[in-house]
Each structure stands twice: as structure tokens, then as C-alpha cells.
Amino acid sequence: MYGSLLAAPDRLWTRGEVMARDCPVPAVPGVYGWHFTAAPSGELPAGRLLYVGISPRRMSERPSSQHLRKRIRYHYRGNAYGSTLRLTLGCLLGLELRRVGSGTRLTFTHKGEAALTEWMHEHARVCWIEHPEPWTVESALLQELDLPLNLDQNRHNAFHARLTALRAEARRRARELPIAT
Fold first, then answer.
1. What 8-state DSSP symbol labels residue 128?
2. Which of 11, 87, 113, 128 has a C-alpha 20 to 30 A away from that of 105?
């Protein structure tokens, strides 16, 4: 049920709409899906759902401050250190991953993150479904849908090994370079 709602939504939202003051994304738990008008790699299809995420990751005894609006906005404007989606897209687009700060965080630095944000502005579209316990549907979505950009719980996907290797190589190269200023 949720898979079809994410794969063929009634509406996809742009970065401009999500980042606007009157943001349509609710501040509640749920599942979100990323569609791309252009593929981040020639090995992937364009114009369809390639990644799903949830927010919050899992409820603990204390309430989470994470919700759909925060998480989706972060993917659109954050950095690769805090967004596995941004890390994946940047690696697929050939951006150079670098160590920053104390050297433990990896991002595409200011120029690379800005290029990724612009690419997402042009090509990334998002939809979402409100769900009080999104972690309860995540595994089923990963089994039901072909989601090549998801790694966690998705080893069965044909693109998993390629994406895992690509991200590992980007991390290895970043650790060999000096810390970016």
C-alpha cells in the first residue's frame, strides 16, 4: 500500500516548495520518497522513485525532535555528513568527498555541497506519507520496491554492491587527502 503511494504519488514537491516559508511538509513522523527527473548516474533510470527514508529513525523512551519537515529540508540543504542521500548523490555525480573540521567529518566542501544542492534543486522531487511509526514500514518498502539508492536493509538490490564500493572508494580517497579548509 505505502509503496504504490510513494512510487506513483499524486504530487511531487520541488526544493523551492519545500524550502518556502509556507512549507507543505508536515512536522510529523513519516516516510518520504525521492524521485529524480535526471538520473545521478547513467547506470540508473530517471523519472522515478530511487530512494526512501523515514523520520524519525526510531522512537526511544524520549520523544524525538526529528520529523518529515526537518529531515526532507536537511536533505535539500544540508551536507553529506548528515545525509546519506546527499553522500550517495554526490558520489554518483563524481563530487570530491573531503575531510573537514577536525578531520572526522566528510563532506563535499562548500563548493561541492553547493553544486549538489543546485543539482537537487533542478532534479530532485519528494513526496511523503505521514505515519506514526515509520520504522515499522521501512523493511516492507525495501522488499517491495526497487530502491537502488538505499543501502541499509537493501543488499538484495542489484545496484547495492556498486553503490557500496563507490562510497567506500570516495571515503578512502578523502582520508588520503589533507583536511579541507
1. E
2. 128
Q: Give dist(CA 137, CA 163) in Å, integer.
A: 23
Encode burial over 146-168: b for 16+ CB neighbours within 10 A, e otherwise. bbbbbbeebeebebbeebeebbe
Which residue is listed with cell 512510487? 7
Maximum separation of any 2 CA atoms in the chain, in Å: 48
**How many C-beta atoms lie closer than 10 Å to residue 98's C-beta?**
22
157 vs 94: CA distance, rounded Å: 22
Residue in 15, 22, 25 with CA at minimum distance from that of residue 118 = 15
Minimal CA–CA distance to 23: which of 67, 65, 58? 67
Mean pLDDT by 10 residues, the chain (181 residues): 94 98 97 98 97 85 79 97 97 97 94 97 98 94 97 97 98 96 83
